[in-house]
Amino acid sequence: MTPTHQDYQAWLPSVCHLARQAGLVIMDIYQCPNCYVEQKQDGSPVTEADRSADQLIREGLAKLTPSIPVVSEENLANTPFMQRQAWSCFWLVDPLDGTKEFVERTDEFCVNIALVVDGIARLGVIFAPVTNQMFSAYEGSDATLARDGRLQTMRTRIPVQAPIKVTASRRHGRRLDSVLERLKEEGVEYLPMGSALKSCLVATGQADIYPRFGPTSHWDTAASQVIVEAAGGALLDMSLQPLRYFPSEDILNPHFVVVGDIAWLQQQAGLLMA
């Protein structure tokens, strides 16, 4: 099945509803002071919220689009690469992006759902349960932010103006420090944030650039990429090419950068160099 733009438009409200319902499940658990946290094999945390939200989303997508498979962070073991490698159309789900932020109670976590067709993320939804913000877009549409009954179109900040607003994780490393140092003469403001909400800051024009030098997976970025691109920006690898999401065994992204003003980044020779 190859979905059309009419399909994207028809499916978007249902996907937003699923993300919101998952957010309600997550918030019920978030408000529980004694929720149990386990460790995955890679050492990252997983909670009851991850699993409950994952099940809700996977079941909802199966009803919405029975012929389109789902690749989810919490269910990857049940969709091995041998099964996925020929898929040209599939959903990518991170039911709780920012589990560390959830555990640390920073409020900076979200639900990510994206539709990938032929390696390109075509529809994306990000829901921030604590702030009740729904970010969404599909290929060819505007990027929108819905909150408390209000809907607004998002645009990145073009042109970039001083101070240059840089967002990244609080756990960033030396390479980000180098980027901040290179931008210091122009004036820089650092905006720490968790999860895919960093990309949403770029989409709304609150941040100009989000460089990422640490490990991430496809489900961390696919929804963000649709939204940022629809808002006028880009999510690029270090060669300034758009990220792609063809099935792979490890589902890992290269280092990347989210930027609101592509022309500005192209003029910053050496900014992202090691």
Characterization of the model:
It is a single chain. By secondary structure, this protein is α+β, with helices and mostly antiparallel strands. The chain has 2 domains: 5-153, Fructose-1,6-Bisphosphatase, subunit A, domain 1 (Fructose-1,6-Bisphosphatase, Chain A, domain 1, 2-Layer Sandwich); 164-267, D-Maltodextrin-Binding Protein, domain 2 (3-Layer(aba) Sandwich), CATH 3.40.190.80. It has helices at residues 5-30, 48-64, 81-84, 99-104, 174-183, 197-203, 218-230, 262-266, and strands spanning 37-39, 45-47, 70-72, 89-97, 110-117, 120-128, 133-138, 144-147, 150-153, 164-168, 188-192, 209-212, 234-237, 256-259. The chain has a 7-stranded mixed sheet with strand order 3-4-5-6-7-8-9, sandwiched between helices. Strands 12-14-13 form a 3-stranded antiparallel sheet. A two-stranded antiparallel ribbon has the order 1-2. The N and C termini lie far apart (42 Å).
What can be said about this structure in brief?
The protein is of the alpha+beta class and 274 residues long.
Give the SSE map.
Layout: H1 5-30, E1 37-39, E2 45-47, H2 48-64, E3 70-72, H3 81-84, E4 89-97, H4 99-104, E5 110-117, E6 120-128, E7 133-138, E8 144-147, E9 150-153, E10 164-168, H5 174-183, E11 188-192, H6 197-203, E12 209-212, H7 218-230, E13 234-237, E14 256-259, H8 262-266
Parallel strand pairs: 3-4, 10-11
Antiparallel strand pairs: 1-2, 4-5, 5-6, 6-7, 7-8, 8-9, 12-14, 13-14
Helix pairs in contact: 1-2, 6-7
Any guess at the CATH architecture of the largest domain? 2-Layer Sandwich
**Portion in strands:** 25-35%
Gyration radius over CA = 18 Å
Domains (count): 2
Question: What is the level 1 CATH name of the largest domain?
Answer: Alpha Beta
- Coarse morphology: globular
Going by CATH, the homologous superfamily of the largest domain would be Fructose-1,6-Bisphosphatase, subunit A, domain 1
**Overall mean pLDDT:** 93
CATH topology of the largest domain: Fructose-1,6-Bisphosphatase, Chain A, domain 1
Task: List the uncertain runs.
Answer: none
Q: Largest beta sheet: what is the strand line-up?
A: 3-4-5-6-7-8-9
Number of DSSP helical runs: 8
Task: Please identify the structural class as seen in this structure.
Answer: alpha+beta
- The ordered H/E elements are HEEHEHEHEEEEEEHEHEHEEH
Number of strands: 14
* Proportion of residues in helical segments: 25-40%
